[in-house]
Write a sequence for this structure.
């Protein structure tokens, strides 16, 4: 077990380097010049641009820049935001807890409601109830989060005045409820569908027949025998979804004005501030990788047939 | 708890009447399935009975309704699509089809237990075998987790699994096929039921292991004086353990007989065909007989005798009239106990 | 390991050779009515599936709209008439008229914009799906077929790309282009999106590779390319199609989201996502300016998802 974790951690290093390198290259190698973007439309002196570039190390070869950046990152130095002159680590420390709160809220929602709906549908496959829930999830999936976001904002905030249209206090879970719902909707629909399929499939399995033949009460047949097996793929999926929820926050935070890393990264992008974007993106990659490691370990705990190899 | 056990242990008031009644009796059972291609009539009026300590072998090809009948007895048919339009399943004289779901559940595993064919898929892959065995005691007898585990180890010893105490926390996939089937048997035996239904218990196993598992089952059955319904398509398995045989075809019993009678003198062309298709050492070099044609489609069972399209002796009457299960007698009319054949020409078949 | 040996010896205990259980009745199921192939069976299922029929009709409708928008409206999506601006409310009964859905903030016909917006969405959606399918299939097949180092390398590469959050990656790439043509958007999304199909293709190829007929073809000396295209690809194609059709809806949603975030097609392009973004200021006073394009996006995504779902149900025998 310990050796497996160690090996997986080692394997994660090249993936982390690869992913961040690609993001880094996309940020700096593609057309679009951060320094020019910084100077805006004002007339600029090529010499000034060159000297700023030199200060920022932007005149070095790309790989060298990446190595410099990563060396800083490992030491906890994310660099400095050009526009605000604040250390990027400060920006992240401010914004990250907000996004974490939003993501945890959405994740809880996804888990409870998604699995709940999936179980309700899957236990009676091919009934009206099942088909209805499947169609509902399909409709949820087809609504991009900005569509659902504006729809709910319009209905709940403007029309019925149930909530505030934007979040003014991100520590207030009441205010976060709406953005969390919107953020959760897509993953929720997927989780419900996956749970439904998994339950419906396992329902037909031989070991379920055995459980009934043993004279176990239905509660136990479903709760112990069916659930343990059916939820294995769902747990795997949920772990991976943590990453998607965090990127999904870019749109949701924008709509509801939640001051989290989603808004920070979006604003940094429009200003073409590479350091901020790459910094936050690296953090997201790290979270995604950590989540997939946890999922793998959890998988082996839940399914004894999987061994740490 | 003790009071209940005492009443269960002491002779019940109607025990005297129990004695002359079979342990399990299936009467005119019908099962059908509603499928996309129409109604599949899987069981069409099956009658059989088993006494305590007796072994009934139910023989037939897949699709003959032998497993469906067993599932109906256990109450584990998928309904829908399955449906039981008519029939009775009497356990100790009581019709289980008229019982409530809860009453039936208490019989399952406790009084009637089942052994399935494929132990690997029939055991829950994510629960340890100790847990799955112990569950029987915890649910039906209310034992604690600890007591249940001790009982599980005892059971595993009982079915001759080596190092039971060390392996009780292992998972099904960690056992060999033969060992897994022993665990299935242990699970069925856990509460010392009155009746065990074994659905092709050895089909998935290696030939050498098959014999061991079969012997274990027969030994335990004798020891506990249980009724056993052995469902199989393997004539070799039947000969050694069964007391009587019911041969099924297209959802009906076509022949019943005490086991050695059947081998000696089959009274139905289908049984005869089955026996003739066994390779025999004394017929080395000769071409092996095979029943021509295929089992019928259950949504369109042929009229008359369902076997008529494949029967070498079929006459016009076979295509129009469904033969009932005729009592089979000696040539002189002398009674043959327990023998019956659903063939218009049983006389010709057995005596001709 | 020691456990294993114990079992073996016990299973092989001598003493019960009495039953020579070798006699077996022919155990064949009922006669199949007629042999159905995966594809004809799938087609049989699809024709009876109402979701498939509805989604096909909708998709055909959307395709026609994307190719010949002029058939649906005579108004131009770019003609701005400030006199009509967004206070020009929809006339829900004026079917197919320019003012059916009212006017946006610049006085352009929302109906015309919605009709002309179909082209961008569908071109990007279909384009990305095709690109991703080709790229993913090639990479996945190479990894699965050759195995060994090639597989390790390509699988790591897949892991790396999976590690990049899709939306974030697309934002980063597209943000650095000033002139975002349809081609640029397609390339950017395909660059990030090929991993899923590559994984499916790799898995399918590994499964098929071990099939007896492929082993036989190899033993008979068939060339690598012949084995790949004649034997492996046709059998790996069903799972790839399933993933691709479902992904199509997702790419249309992605295009709309990126346009909404301002990094989709250039500003001059007519796109639903962009219209939603521009209408967002009017959410309180003129909600129809963003609700109409929003609904169009959702209906389009829904059509393709239903289509993909129906195809999956028909092609995946496990779900039946």
């Amino acid at each position: 077990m310990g050796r497996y974790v160690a090996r997986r951690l080692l394997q994660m290093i090249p993936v982390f380097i690869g992913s961040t390198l690609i993001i880094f290259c996309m940020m700096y190698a593609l057309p679009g010049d951060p320094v020019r973007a910084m100077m805006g439309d004002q007339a600029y002196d090529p010499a000034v641009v060159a000297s700023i570039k030199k200060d920022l190390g932007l005149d070095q070869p790309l790989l060298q820049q990446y190595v410099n950046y990563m060396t800083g990152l490992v030491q906890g130095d994310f660099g400095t935001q050009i526009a605000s002159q604040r250390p990027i680590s400060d920006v992240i420390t401010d914004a990250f807890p907000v996004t974490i709160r939003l993501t945890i809220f959405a994740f809880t929602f996804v888990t409870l409601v998604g699995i709940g709906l999936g179980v309700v549908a899957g236990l009676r496959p091919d009934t009206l109830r099942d088909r209805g829930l499947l169609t509902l999830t399909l409709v949820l999936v087809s609504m991009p989060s900005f569509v659902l976001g504006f729809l709910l904002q319009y209905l709940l905030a403007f029309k019925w005045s149930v909530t505030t249209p934007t979040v003014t206090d991100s520590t207030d879970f009441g205010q976060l409820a709406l953005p969390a719902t919107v953020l959760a909707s897509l993953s929720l629909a997927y989780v419900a569908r996956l749970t439904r399929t998994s339950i419906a499939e396992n329902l037909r399995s031989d070991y379920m027949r055995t459980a009934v033949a043993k004279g176990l009460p239905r509660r136990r047949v479903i709760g112990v025998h069916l659930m343990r097996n059916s939820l294995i793929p769902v747990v795997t999926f949920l772990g991976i979804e943590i990453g998607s929820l965090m990127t999904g926050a870019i749109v949701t935070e924008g709509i509801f004005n939640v001051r989290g890393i989603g808004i920070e990264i979006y604003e940094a992008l429009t200003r073409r501030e590479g350091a901020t974007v790459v910094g936050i993106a690296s953090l997201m990659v790290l979270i995604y990788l950590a989540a997939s490691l946890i999922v793998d370990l959890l998988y082996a705990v839940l399914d004894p047939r999987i061994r740490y190899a | 708890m003790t009071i209940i056990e005492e009443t269960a242990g002491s002779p019940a008031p109607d025990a005297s009447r129990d004695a002359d009644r079979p342990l399990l009796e299936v009467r005119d059972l019908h099962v059908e399935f509603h499928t996309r291609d129409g109604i599949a009539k899987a069981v069409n009026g099956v009658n059989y009975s088993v006494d305590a300590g007796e072994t009934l072998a139910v023989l037939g090809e897949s699709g003959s309704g032998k497993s469906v009948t067993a599932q109906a007895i256990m109450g584990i048919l998928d309904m829908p699509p399955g449906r039981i339009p008519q029939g009775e399943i009497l356990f100790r004289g009581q019709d289980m089809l008229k019982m409530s779901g809860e009453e039936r559940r208490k019989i399952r595993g406790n009084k009637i237990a089942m052994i399935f064919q494929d132990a690997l898929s029939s055991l829950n892959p994510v629960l340890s075998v100790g847990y799955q065995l112990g569950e029987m005691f915890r649910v039906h007898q209310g034992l604690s987790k600890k007591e249940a585990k001790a009982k599980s180890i005892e059971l595993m010893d009982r079915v001759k699994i080596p190092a039971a105490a060390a392996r009780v926390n292992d998972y099904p996939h960690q056992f060999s096929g033969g060992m897994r089937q022993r665990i299935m048997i242990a699970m069925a035996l856990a509460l010392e039921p009155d009746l065990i239904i074994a659905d092709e218990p050895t089909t998935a196993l290696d030939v050498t292991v098959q014999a061991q598992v079969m012997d274990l089952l027969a030994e335990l059955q004798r020891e506990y004086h249980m009724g056993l319904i052995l469902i199989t398509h393997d004539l070799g398995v039947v000969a050694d353990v069964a007391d009587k045989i019911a041969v099924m075809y297209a959802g009906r019993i076509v022949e019943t007989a005490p086991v050695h009678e059947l081998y000696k003198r089959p009274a139905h062309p289908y049984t005869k065909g089955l026996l003739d298709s066994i390779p025999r050492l004394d017929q080395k070099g000769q071409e092996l007989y095979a029943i021509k044609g295929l089992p019928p489609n259950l949504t369109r069972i042929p009229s008359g005798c369902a076997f008529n399209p494949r029967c070498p002796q079929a006459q016009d009457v076979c295509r129009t009239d469904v033969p009932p299960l005729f009592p089979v007698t000696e040539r002189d009319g002398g009674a043959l106990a327990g023998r019956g054949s659903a063939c218009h020409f049983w006389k010709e078949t057995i005596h001709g | 390991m020691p456990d294993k040996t114990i079992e073996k010896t016990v299973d092989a205990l001598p003493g019960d050779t009495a039953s020579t259980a070798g006699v077996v009745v022919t155990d064949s199921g009922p006669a199949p009515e007629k042999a159905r192939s995966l594809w004809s069976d799938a087609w049989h299922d699809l024709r009876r599936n109402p979701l498939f029929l509805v989604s096909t009709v909708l998709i055909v409708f959307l395709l026609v709209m994307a190719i010949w928008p002029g058939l649906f409206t005579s108004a131009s999506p770019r003609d701005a008439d400030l006199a009509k601006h967004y206070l020009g409310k929809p006339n829900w009964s004026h079917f197919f008229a320019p003012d059916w859905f009212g006017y946006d903030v610049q006085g352009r016909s929302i109906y015309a914009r919605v009709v002309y917006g179909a082209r961008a969405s569908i071109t990007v959606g279909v384009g990305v799906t095709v690109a991703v399918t080709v790229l993913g299939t090639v990479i996945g097949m190479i990894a699965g077929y050759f195995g060994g180092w090639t597989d390790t390398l390509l699988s790591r590469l897949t892991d790396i790309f999976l590690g990049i959050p899709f939306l974030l990656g697309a934002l980063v790439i597209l943000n650095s282009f000033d002139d975002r043509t349809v081609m640029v958007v397609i390339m950017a999304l395909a660059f990030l999106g090929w991993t899923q199909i590559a994984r499916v293709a790799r898995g399918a190829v590994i499964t098929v590779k071990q099939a007896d007929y492929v082993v036989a073809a190899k033993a008979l000396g068939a060339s690598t390319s012949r084995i790949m295209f004649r034997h492996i690809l046709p059998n790996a194609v069903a799972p790839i199609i399933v993933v691709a059709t479902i992904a199509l809806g997702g790419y249309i949603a992605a295009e709309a989201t990126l346009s909404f975030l301002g990094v989709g097609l250039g500003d001059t392009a007519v796109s639903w996502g962009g219209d939603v973004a521009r209408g967002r200021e009017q959410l309180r006073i003129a909600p129809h300016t963003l609700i109409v394009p929003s609904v169009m996006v959702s209906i389009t995504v829904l059509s393709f998802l239903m289509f993909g779902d129906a195809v999956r149900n028909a092609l995946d025998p496990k779900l039946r």
